[in-house]
Amino acid sequence: MVQDSSSQAAFKQYFAQQLAQTLGQALPQQELDRCFKGIKILEPRAGKAFWQAGNGNVGVYMVMAGKVRLLDQDNNLLASLEASSTFGELTLFPEESFQP
User: Fold this and answer.
1) CB 38 within 8 A of CB 27
2) Which of 8, 47, 58, 72 has a Cα-to-Cα distance from 98 of 20 to 30 A?
3) Are residues 54 and 39 in the same domain?
4) Distance, CA of 39 to CA of 36 (rounded, Å)
5) CB neighbours (10 Å) of residue 27?
């Protein structure tokens, strides 16, 4: 987790802008503060796994810089994500089946 307050401030500003763009309006600071309470800023080491589907981690991850590779259980590349990409959204809906 990043402890640098300037990194956290930059992320909060970026997140607020992205959220306003998605919603079509800015949220009041009180609502943003409520969102920020549920956010952790991670800085994983390059080449090291930090998330795996099905292991119980619930949450949405946003790539702020660099790249993230999503692999299946056999280490086959599923996707390569860059800055502003998100993943993990389906973990918020554990009761749903999104299989084809």
Assistant:
1) no
2) 47
3) no
4) 5
5) 14
Question: Coil, strand, or helix at residue 94?
Answer: coil
Range of the structural domain that residue 35 is part of: 1-43
Q: Please indicate, yes or no, whether residues 25 and 68 belong to a single structural domain of this protein.
A: no
Q: Tell me how crowded residue 13 is: count the other CB atoms within 10 A of its CB.
A: 10
Pair (36, 78) in one structural domain? no
Q: Are residues 54 and 31 in the same domain?
A: no
d(CA 89, CA 87): 6
pLDDT digits (tens, 9 = 90+) for 32-75: 888 887 777 778 888 888 887 767 777 888 888 889 998 888 88
Handedness of CA 90, 55, 80, 36 (dihedral sign): positive
- Of all residues in the chain, the percent with pLDDT exceeding 90 is 6
CA 88/CA 65 separation, integer angstroms = 17
Tokens for 40? Answer: 């952790």
Average per-residue pLDDT in the chain?
A: 80
Q: Are residues 56 and 39 in the same domain?
A: no
